[in-house]
Recover the amino acids of this structure.
């Protein structure tokens, strides 16, 4: 089991926070590169829990429109794995938003049972939770997890006292739509359709227990989901990362890896001057480039005009990339810049007025990255990888980029002589730590 998860459970016990796993301990048994754990905590413990999780490397994700859910995510660099905690402060069910409340959260925490390394619901509570989860939330029982429902029923039959409270809960919340006897017939005969046919009756029955609050929760959730894009934009949830390195260090490969990574799913945007790279580009740039190539060697005003138009088109293309990055940032997404105008400052040659103006236009309009990652490798290693330029020139570029640490805030250097998986793991950990720190400051 993930050491981070074990440490979290131990800390929660030490801090006196009430919690239990919503779906039993089975979800802890199969750790994967992406693992999601569902926890139930009382509302008055949520703030303290959030503080503990932050201190253990977790960041919060937006939850507008998903109440009572709160999402916390961390990245473990040691085993290259993501861990997500889906924390709820109440047990609600779909209608179609999570509006139906059965009032089982407090008893579930009161009757929780210790089961290493955490706490789980009592068999009675777990039985009701599993039943409602598949009857209301999913609307079917076509899942291997429903085997647990049958296991609990058999346990109740073998030890009748253990199912006494479950029977009382069914009588209190689900009868007459579903009775204890109806459940017994359906489970023993595996006749799940018998329960599914009564799904609408159960939903109506739960709705009329508290109609005003149910409607209020429904309208509130729908309103927040409609407003979600504006709330994300106002909270500055997005994040930009610049990847800088001489050719051969693996910038483009790393950007593609980050685009596939869960919870990051970065939008790579190329900010270099190579117009052949298929990223965000204007069709006029390629068209003018073809015209310029066809006019190569010719005399007259046409080639001069084409050069001016091509330079202006490339500048406009860079600005369009900035605009796309700004859009993704407003939507709360991660943006990875492959190259950045910072690299322009490494050119030590004397520049003409036109080049200085062009550099200023590129740098002044470009979004300032939240994190700058310099992939570092000796010039000789870079030359052996790609065979472009020469080792001396690549080494000079490398030294110039390393100097950015003293000029640009939030610049980190990563050893790029290692394999792509090691580099990726370190960069992801750096990105998530920066995101976590920035989000924490934004909530204080």
């Amino acid at each position: 089991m993930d050491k981070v998860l074990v440490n979290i459970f131990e800390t929660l016990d030490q801090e006196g926070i009430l919690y239990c796993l919503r779906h039993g301990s089975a979800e802890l048994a199969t750790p994967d590169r992406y693992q999601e754990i569902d926890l139930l905590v009382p509302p008055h413990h949520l703030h303290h829990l959030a503080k503990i999780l932050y201190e253990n490397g977790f960041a919060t994700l937006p939850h507008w429109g998903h109440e009572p859910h709160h999402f916390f995510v961390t990245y473990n660099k040691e085993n290259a794995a993501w861990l997500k905690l889906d924390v709820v402060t109440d047990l609600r069910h779909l209608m179609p938003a999570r509006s139906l409340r059965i009032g089982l959260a407090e008893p579930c925490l009161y009757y929780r049972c210790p089961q290493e390394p955490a706490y789980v619901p009592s068999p009675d509570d777990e039985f009701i939770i599993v039943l409602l989860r598949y009857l209301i939330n999913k609307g079917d029982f076509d899942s291997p997890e429903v085997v647990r429902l049958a296991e609990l029923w058999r346990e109740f039959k073998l030890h009748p006292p253990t199912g006494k409270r479950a029977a009382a809960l069914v009588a209190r919340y689900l009868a007459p739509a579903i009775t204890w006897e109806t459940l017994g017939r359906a489970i023993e005969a595996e006749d799940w359709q018998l329960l599914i046919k009564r799904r609408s009756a159960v939903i109506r029955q739960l709705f009329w227990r508290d109609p005003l609050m149910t409607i209020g929760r429904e309208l509130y959730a729908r309103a927040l989901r409609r407003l979600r894009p504006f709330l994300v934009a106002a909270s500055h949830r997005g994040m930009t990362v610049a990847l800088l390195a001489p050719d051969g260090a693996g910038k483009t490969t790393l950007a593609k890896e980050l685009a596939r990574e869960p919870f990051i799913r970065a939008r790579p945007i190329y900010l270099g001057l190579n117009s052949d790279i298929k990223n965000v580009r204007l069709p006029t740039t390629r068209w003018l480039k073809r015209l310029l190539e066809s006019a190569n060697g010719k005399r007259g005003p046409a080639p001069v005009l084409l050069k001016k138009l091509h330079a202006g088109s490339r500048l406009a293309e860079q600005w369009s990339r900035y605009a796309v990055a700004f859009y993704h940032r407003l939507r709360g997404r991660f943006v990875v810049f492959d190259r950045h105008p910072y690299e322009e400052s490494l050119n030590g040659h004397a520049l003409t007025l036109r080049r200085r103006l062009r550099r200023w236009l590129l740098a002044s309009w470009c979004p300032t990255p939240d994190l700058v990652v310099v992939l570092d490798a000796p010039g000789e290693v870079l030359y052996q990888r790609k065979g472009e330029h020469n080792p001396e020139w690549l080494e000079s570029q490398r030294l110039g980029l390393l100097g950015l640490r003293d000029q640009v805030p939030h610049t980190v250097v990563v050893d790029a002589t290692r394999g792509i998986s090691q580099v990726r793991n370190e960069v992801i950990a750096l990105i998530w730590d920066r995101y976590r720190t920035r989000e924490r400051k934004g909530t204080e």
The mean pLDDT is 86.
